[in-house]
């Protein structure tokens, strides 16, 4: 019994050390579908050994350059003649190369339409896919290509995984030999912690393999801007003058119609007032009239004749 208790103490102490060594494992990203086999991680003869402090065994060697895990990403901004056609071409090209479309975001419509397309293609066809995307452009506005070498991290995770699996096997053997419930519970608790670390490391390794196997290309598509106008902005533009005159005429007509609507609605208010004012004015005008004297009567035409015996022209 004493030997079993001593062995439990040793195992738990080892667990503490392993937990400290694996605490730096990054969080595993959501699992992605497997599209192609990951590069072979077999060590090559003559390859340099890992640096100290990486957590790997001293004799662990990095794979050759042809088998390294490199996560490639590219981002381009393109001016294209037709955004919709370019978007369809990129999606078709990615599927032809064995990749798939991650996301498509479209803004605007017609001649102002813009689109952002994100595709993933096999790493071996990355350059071909990128050249095909750029070939659709009238003009390449920006281009960014990056690569993240995760080979050393992957090899380090492999070494930690082997150590944890060996610890798990020893704890399983100890659990099978435990006679007391208390000892079995302590071993099982430590075993659960080890198993959780193993699963996290496996998930991270799977993510690194899939990310290196499939490269990401982000293409932002913009329409070619229209040519500059021949007529200067400050020059005389008859069309603009006509549009402004027509707009003013429409606004004047709308104002008249609005006034007519308002007057029609307010008829019960203003019509009695207008009628009363008109009646009062007519009454005042009638009361202010005075009788006029008739003009004096004109003499008859005979009285106006000259006397007899007078000569014409004599005074």
Describe the overall structure.
With about 325 residues, this protein is α+β, with helices and mostly antiparallel strands. The chain has a domain at about 1-20 and about 65-220. The chain is about 50% helix and about 15% strand. The chain contains seven helices and five strands; from the N terminus they run αβαββαβααβαα. It has helices spanning about 1-20, 85-95, 125-135, 150-175, 180-215, 240-265, 265-285, and strands at about 70-80, 100-105, 115-120, 140-150, 215-225. A five-stranded mixed beta sheet has the order 2-3-5-1-4. A hairpin with a 6-residue loop joins β2 (about 100-105) and β3 (about 115-120).
Q: What's the short version?
A:
With 315 residues, the protein is of the alpha+beta class. Helices cover 49% and strands 16% of the residues.
H-E order: HEHEEHEHHEHH
The best one-word shape is: elongated
Tally of contiguous helical segments:
7
Low-confidence stretches: 20-59, 310-315
Strand order of the largest sheet: 2-3-5-1-4
Which sheet architecture does the biggest sheet show?
5 strands, mixed
Question: What class do helices, strands and sheet pairing give?
Answer: alpha+beta
Mean pLDDT over the residues: 76
* Number of beta strands: 5
Question: How far apart, in Å, are the first and last alpha carbons?
Answer: 180 Å
Rg over alpha carbons: 50 Å
Indicate the percent of residues in helices: 40-55%
In terms of DSSP E residues, the strand content is 15-25%
